Amino acid sequence: MATASRTPLSLYVHWPYCSFLCKFCAFSKARIPAQGVEHDRITSALLRELRTSLLPHKDKVITSIYFGGGTPSLARPQHIGQIIEEAGKIAHLAPGAEITLESNPTSAEIEKMRDFKLAGITRYSIGVQTLNDKSLEKMGRLHTGAQGLAAVDRARSLFPGHVNFDMIFGFEGQTAAQWQRELEVALDHADRHISIYQLTVEPGTPLYRDRNAKRLVLPGGDSQASMYEVAAELCRGRGFRHYEVSNYAVGLEAESAHNKSYWRCQQWVGVGPSAHSRFVDPCSGRRISSVRIPDTRRWLQRCEEAGHGTAKSTVIEDADTKQEVVVFGLRMLDGLANARFREFSRGQSLSEFLRMDQVKEYVGQGYLTWDESTEHLAPTERGLEVIDSILLDIVP
Amino acid sequence: MPCLSGNLTEHTALTPGSVILADAACGLVCDLHSTSCAWHAVTTPFMSPTMKLLAECGLSSLAMADIGAESVLRENTWPMLKTVMRPSESPEITKRKEVDLTLYPPERIRNFSIIAHIDHGKSTLADRLLEWTGVISKESKNKQVLDKLKVERERGITVKAQSASMFFEYKGERYLLNLIDTPGHVDFSYEVSRSLAACQGTILLVDAAQGIQAQTVANFYLAFGEGLEVIPMLNKVDLPTAEPERTALQIESAFEMDAGDIIKLSAKTGLGIDQVLPAIIERMPPPAGSIDKPFKALLFDTWYDTYVGVVCLMAVKDGLIKRGDKIVSSHSGTKYEVSEVGIMHPEQTPTGTLQVGQVGYIVCNMKSISEAHVGDTFYREKHPVEPLPGFVPAKSMVFAGVFPIDAGEFDRLNESIQKLTLNDSSVSVHKETSAALGQGWRLGFLGTLHMDVFRQRLEEEYDANVLITSPTVPYQIKYKDGTMNFIRTPADFPDANTMQDFVESTLEPYVMATLIFPEKYLGNMLELCSSHRGDILNHTFIDETRVMLKCRLPMAEIVTDFYDKLKSKSQGFASFDYEDAGYDSSDLVKMEVLLNGEAVDALAAVMHKSSVVTVGRDLAKRLKEVIRRQLFDIIIQTAANGKVVARETVKQMRKNVTAKCYGGDITRKMKLLNRQKEGKKRMKKIGKVELPQEAFLSIMTKSSD
Lengths: 396, 705
Hints:
The structure holds 2 protein chains of 2 kinds.
Chain A: E1 8-15, E2 17-18, E3 30-31, H1 39-54, E4 61-69, H2 77-90, E5 92-103, H3 107-111, H4 113-119, E6 123-129, H5 133-138, H6 145-158, E7 163-169, H7 176-189, E8 193-198, H8 206-212, H9 221-237, E9 241-244, E10 247-249, H10 257-263, E11 268-271, E12 276-280, E13 287-292, H11 296-306, E14 310-315, H12 318-329, H13 338-342, H14 350-353, H15 356-364, E15 368-371, E16 376-379, H16 381-385, H17 387-394
Parallel strand pairs in A: 1-4, 1-11, 2-3, 4-5, 5-6, 6-7, 7-8
Antiparallel strand pairs in A: 8-10, 9-10, 12-13, 13-14, 15-16
Helix pairs in contact in A: 1-2, 2-4, 7-9
Chain B: H1 4-12, H2 19-22, E1 29-31, E2 38-40, H3 49-59, H4 77-84, E3 109-116, H5 122-132, H6 150-155, E4 163-170, E5 173-180, H7 189-196, E6 201-207, H8 214-225, E7 229-235, H9 244-255, E8 263-264, H10 276-283, E9 296-305, E10 309-318, E11 320-322, E12 326-329, E13 335-337, E14 340-344, E15 348-350, E16 353-355, E17 359-363, E18 377-380, E19 398-404, H11 410-422, E20 428-434, E21 438-445, H12 448-462, E22 466-468, E23 475-479, E24 484-487, H13 496-502, E25 503-518, H14 522-531, E26 535-541, E27 546-554, H15 555-558, H16 562-569, E28 575-585, E29 588-595, E30 598-599, E31 605-608, H17 612-626, E32 634-640, E33 643-650, H18 666-681, E34 684-686, E35 689-691, H19 693-698
Parallel strand pairs in B: 3-5, 3-6, 6-7, 7-8
Antiparallel strand pairs in B: 1-2, 4-5, 9-10, 9-18, 10-17, 11-16, 12-13, 12-18, 14-15, 14-17, 19-21, 19-22, 20-21, 23-24, 23-25, 25-27, 25-28, 26-27, 29-30, 29-31, 29-32, 32-33, 34-35
């Protein structure tokens, strides 16, 4: 079967260890154990789980792989290579597939960049976060802003056109004017992709506890909105298209194929502790959501005993899938085409599903656009900024 | 009754599925699943006389509880019964094996009540007296036997008057003593006065540690006004903090009565209990009336019993009544046949007869509680009598809108309110429709505690989920043509044009308040009263350190947070009570709340002109705190007489989007979305503005100082 007609599948690999823990991070992670990372053990567990989980999808084509974490740049490049190779052995790895590795801008990781490229990584993503050294320190990160930019420069020479870095706004005491100056400098170093997030206080994080204990006061809603708007404005000026709430790229090629598979509700398999999967079960034809055991130690044990560390697997009802398609589709400025919606809706059209009176009202107010003939729904820039409010009204 | 255990054997034959169990409205039901034996005896034609005997004798030594008729009578219950039942000083038994009440002429009857402030031990004293006379057993844990509603036990208050009959031997004579319970709180003063109408005397029970409280004063004057013999008693004298001498002095100075031979007791430990009943017999007059006159009885309480229908509590003023008699209501002229008469002992216990001076219940095929007109006089068919003066109907002093939180619950809530008002006819009910809240009711209550109790009963006994609007008092509008109109809801308030052209004056209800507190809070209390438009009449020292203050206040000032302020400004030491004090003309205005120009009917309120600015500003501020930002600016305005008093803006929400949403975040994001959608459903929409429940709650309390 030709690759083009096969069902696309994305692969997410979670590497759980970190050399430092960031105060805002709500992902599953573990500080490197005292005796050091058991590289071989974790790699063989990942490989085992990969084999168990990918086998049912052997006829699908892997269009992207994403190494996230944790800090996957702490892994050994040859192990990353083994995982990529194994995936290609089980299913079909599309030629030119986007294979991303997340990293931190520490010197040790920068040194390994070339080896990661040799191991098969095609896209490099760096957690620069901010250029403000004080904020970095407060968030518990062990690098400077200058190191961040240096890592970006280095990555650009190795992965030209395929480098991303993350920036965060909304730190304590930050103003929109400060943020604008900072982002301008960052954009001077940017390749063709940048992710810009508002600092979000997630439950269970040290940041959350600090804020609740009033040790931390973050900028108010209006100033966060201003910073968001500054980012959109600046990026547009530099030729970056705001293609998703927090993601900007120059040219369609540079957009993250892997992340778009999430927002388009395509299929992906995740391996590693806490990794989520969402795929159509080849046997039942039903959409499944599953999640691995979040605790690394317990995940390792389960993988070694049972070949995988799945904690929970549930069938997603059609009604929920339809909601997801809309909720995630509208995170992208391109919005949601009726044709894509109908892939999930058993023939129901977007206008039959949505609360159209509300849609029309938001269209009238300039928050959404709706193409009557094709039934294509998309948020405007203004709409995207408040899309969570809009979704509550338009999704039945 | 030494023969009792012998008689018990007869019943063994009755046990397995006998006839009494076939009748749902019946008889003797015994549940021995629970540790205490519970009995409920109701006359039925099927009930064997011996069973009745058993019931009566058993009743004197068993803990009582009203239990479902579906409970199964089991064979193994009888041996257990034998061990629980002890021969007691049982009353005389007739041929029908019932208590023979004809042996109790008025001179051997005393009808009395206990009046006391909350927590001064009224219910405990009642429990002790019932134990002392063997009506309830000492072994079982008797706690507030007369307080049957869950809310009463929880809050330690009495809402519904109950009564219980006791037999007591004194100086060689047997007496029938009827304790008629009275609610302690002023909100239920209507209940108090009708209970007192069935008594000739009352015990004024005062906590010797706390001293006289405002409610004691109010209830004392109610009793005094009825011409009852008041016997003061001091409770809790065993407490280390008790000051019996000082409390006795307070009683002397507040009530101008001789407290020299005051009875000191501890209802909790039983200390002094033996003096209580002799004092009642010695000092209270027996009921008047004559057995030779035609039957005449005052209906002073009713309730609805699922099995037998309406039960009427009556005080027989003259003559005699027995099962099978035909009686007529003076109020409606309707004729009824008496199917059962009896006493509360403490549950319904049939006696076959009731006669002059006695207090008991009558079941007479009344279908609906509305037929039972409290205060009505009943007489024997063809023997009409001069009706008793009766009662002034309970007046609703506080009105509030009640709405289902979920409009789909309307029918269920309607049924619950109907059921609840069956046993509380003092709640007035009118349907109301609000543009903001949909279909609901405007309910009238006797006071704010009454309202609160009603809400609690709705929620606890009927599992209802309700939204109650800010309480208002019944204002009056006097028109130029001389007609008067009550304002139950702010929607009834005349508009500006009508006001100008047709209204002569507006009036608001006043109360006479009594405050009792330690001297050092005098300044605070005076200030509290004047800041609530109060007119201070006088203050007197009831002992060296305690002050009694009399003050005339607009009723509207006390329905919201007056009581809370009183407590906080006196560190909890002040007590407060009030009575109706008529109407006075007053400069009233209706304050409206507008959201983006649209009036929210459920938030409107009628108030005195002087309150408008403070309340208007405060309310706008509070609403600003609870209204969430939406995608447009929300202008909150409070306005009176067409003029805006205060204005606040809830600014448009500029940004509401989850920053990070990747593969692992989807499940959580969807859960959040659905939870928020649920929350949105509970919002009330005013135009496009979403108003949370808190908006209605926030206006329940008046100001934030």
